[in-house]
Amino acid sequence: MRKAADAAEEASNSRTFEIVARAGYAVSGLLHVLIGVIALQLAFGRSGEADVSGAVASLASQPVGPLLLWACFGACAALALWQLGNAILGERTSSKKLTKRLSAAGQAIVFAGLAATIVSFVMGQGKNSRESSSDFTLTLMSAPFGVFLLVAIGAGIAITGIVFAVRGFRQTFKRDISLSSEQSVRKFQVGVGVVGYIAKGIALFLVGLLVVIAAMRAQPEQSTGLDGSLKALREQPYGPYLLAAVAVGLIAYGLFLMVKAKSLRT
Question: Which residue ranges traverse the bilayer (predicted)?
Answer without folding.
Answer: 23-44, 64-82, 102-123, 143-169, 190-218, 238-259
